[in-house]
Write a structure and sequence with these properties.
Helix Hairpins, D-Maltodextrin-Binding Protein, domain 2, five-stranded mixed β-sheet, alpha/beta
Length: 430
């Protein structure tokens, strides 16, 4: 009573509940003070960390058991055993209570199943597939109509500038001799975030080229804004739609062999995996998955999908992960978690009644929040999608293609006019 009161200091629900449990215990629990209950437990946080000292017991089931011990003043001795050994020992009468991630089942003849204290379910987890923003996003940032209208405006401005330059040259002004393609490059240079000075001296030609530069800067800013917004909100698609779609994706499905869920992938009454799951479930990428401490390393460094329950994964997500992980929201294999009690243990129904009381008082909900939801966030929610080489790969390819094309055009120019370049003087190509 004192331990629980200090442990949950300020939580009136615990104090009130334990007071009622102590009153109720005096008329229902028949064991004397010398009787020791043999409790078997499997060390597996966040379910339970076993100990003969109730103050050192931890975990979701451990907290429930401590409340039962404090309320009933139960004397117990606890043994740390493997999961399957604990189940068989209680079923054979070698133990009284087994604590762990046990599920409600009708396969055990000599075990009394308690009231479920929590509904557990399995979900799919994997390293979040990252959506790469490819180079074609630059083209898709504008609609087809906008691309057409923009090019039409730039082409019109180029003709206007070129015609203005030709008109001024008739009046013997000192305007540079530029061709129509050069005028087009000057008009669209604003969109390339690099204004190209054509060297005009007349105010009319300068106004025209400045207008085209302003339009180019506006389009450049709009394209940058669209690309940045896509990088911020783009969601990565899952490579499958359901558990049944995983075969054929090239991913491995990691499931604990000791889990009852593993039997769902095997033939009935056999340990052989069904044909569709062969070379998919528990491949070489899942080595060491039985130990929950290896889940993070396996999930972040291998092409795998993890099928695990929320209690186990909550312990995985307590710390910041080295990779960004995602959870498939669909629940699979939903079933109640229970406490196994030897069927002929006197007053074994008292444990179920206590669980019902804990549920009515909201204590089970509190413990569920404490052990399964408090730290389920996983990796740092702040994500930064940095620009990588993949994003501009297509643009660089296009750039080098244009460089090669310009060299090809240069070769034609040299052949057509052998001495087109002379001593800082460029001859105008008509």
């Amino acid at each position: 009573m004192d331990k629980i009161s200090v442990w949950h200091e300020g939580e009136q629900e615990f104090k009130t509940l334990l007071w009622h449990c102590n009153q109720w215990r005096r008329v229902t629990w028949k064991y004397d003070s010398d009787t020791k209950i043999k409790v078997l437990a499997t060390y597996e946080l966040p379910y339970i960390k076993p100990s003969n000292n109730s103050a050192d017991i931890q975990g979701y089931v451990g907290d429930i058991f401590v409340i039962i011990v404090e309320a009933f003043k139960m004397n117990f001795v606890m043994y740390n055993v493997r999961y399957h050994d604990g189940v068989s020992f209680v079923n054979d009468g070698l133990g009284d209570i087994f604590l762990g991630g046990t599920i409600a089942t009708s396969d055990l003849k000599n075990i009394q199943i308690s009231q479920p204290y929590m509904m557990n379910s399995y979900r799919l987890y994997m390293k979040k597939p990252r959506m790469e923003i490819d180079s074609y996003f630059y083209i898709k940032s504008f609609s087809k109509n906008l691309w057409f209208v923009s090019f039409l405006v730039f082409f019109t401005m180029s003709i206007t500038v070129w015609a203005t330059e030709r008109l001024l040259m008739k009046y013997k002004t000192k305007e540079p001799c530029v061709s129509l393609p050069i005028c087009l490059f000057g008009a669209i240079s604003g969109m390339l975030n690099k204004g190209y000075d054509l060297g005009f001296r007349s105010y009319s030609a300068r106004i025209q080229i400045y207008v085209s530069l302003i339009l180019g800067v506006i389009l450049y800013s709009a394209m940058s804004a669209v690309l940045y917004s896509k990088m911020a909100v783009l969601q990565s698609p899952w490579p499958f739609d359901s558990l049944e779609d995983i075969p054929g994706t090239g991913l491995s499905l990691c499931v604990r062999n000791s889990s009852w869920v593993y039997k769902s992938f095997c033939h009935p009454d056999q340990h052989q995996v069904q044909p569709m799951w062969q070379n998919v479930i528990n491949t070489k990428h899942c080595i060491g998955f039985e130990n929950s401490s290896n889940i993070v390393d396996i999930m972040c460094n291998n092409p795998v999908v993890v099928l695990e329950n929320k209690v186990i994964m909550s312990s995985v997500f307590r710390n910041k992960l080295p990779c960004d992980c995602a959870m498939f929201r669909t629940e699979y294999f939903k079933i109640g978690l229970v406490i196994y009690v030897r069927k002929h243990l006197k007053e074994s129904p008292s444990i179920s009644k206590m669980i019902i009381k804990l549920q009515s008082a909201g204590i089970l909900k509190y413990l569920e929040e404490k052990w399964t939801y408090k730290h389920r966030g996983g990796s740092d929610p702040k994500q930064w999608y940095a620009v990588t080489f993949k994003h501009i790969e297509g643009v660089l390819v296009f750039y080098f293609q244009m460089v090669a094309f310009s060299l090809f055009v240069l070769g034609i120019e040299v052949i057509w006019k052998g001495d087109i370049f002379k001593c800082n003087e460029i001859t105008c190509i008509e």
